[in-house]
Amino acid sequence: xxxxxxxxxxxxxxxxxxxxxxxxxxxxxxxxxxxxxxxxxxxxxxxxxxxxxxxxxxxxxxxxxxxxxxxxxxxxxxxxxxxxxxxxxxxxxxxxxxxxxxxxxxxxxxxxxxxxxxxxxxxxxxxxxxxxxxxxxxxxxxxxxxxxxxxxxxxxxxxxxxxxxxxxxxxxxxxxxxxxxxxxxxxxxxxxxxxxxxxxxxxxxxxxxxxxxxxxxxxxxxxxxxxxxxxxxxxxxxxxxxxxxxxxxxxxxxxxxxxxxxxx
Length: 264
Prior knowledge:
Layout: E1 12-16, H1 21-32, E2 36-41, H2 44-56, E3 60-65, H3 71-81, E4 90-93, H4 108-135, E5 140-145, H5 158-178, E6 183-188, H6 196-201, H7 214-222, H8 231-242, E7 253-254
Parallel strand pairs: 1-2, 1-4, 2-3, 4-5, 5-6, 6-7
Helix pairs in contact: 1-2, 1-8, 3-4, 4-5
């Protein structure tokens, strides 16, 4: 029975940020669990690779090239997912970018860009999914991607942390509003995960240069487990929240962070 609770056969999932990293790992795992997965990203080649991997493993997947910061593109993609008559069962709003700058050096355009993608992009995906789920009669799971940055301050992470904190508030608020429709909304707040995004966060030349892997080594030492996370670690958290195994869970933040933060 425990294994059956993770079975997604016959369900439809939509994953943003599916071209790489956590988004790709999540798309692959949801497909492995039996879902038809609609993969969205602005990276056309990465999308093609993700869908090819799913199909090579015997799964069913579709591509939607879009910019999550464009509300119309998100709405249209979700509408295509549910037409002809169908329903959306799972939304995994994972797309995001990393930005680092001291508060005193943060430009308005930097903050706007991060908020557009990391918060508004999640809002647009959640809103489109919730509307589709309600129109189909209710039920479904929405999973947002927060961050360990919401639990502590860190130099340079004003834009990123603020956007992710907004995602947490969105998650909790939406959970209260759509719960009566049988829709669950939860967030995953990862610690440091080895992905192309965090790899690009490392600088190896110019101002503030440090050896590649420097931050990863620090984060690994901070973890009681002595390591940083992998995309699959987070994908499994998303699968849990997307599946019937978490049918009594909503408005919560799941923190797969290796024990770096242990909030009450």
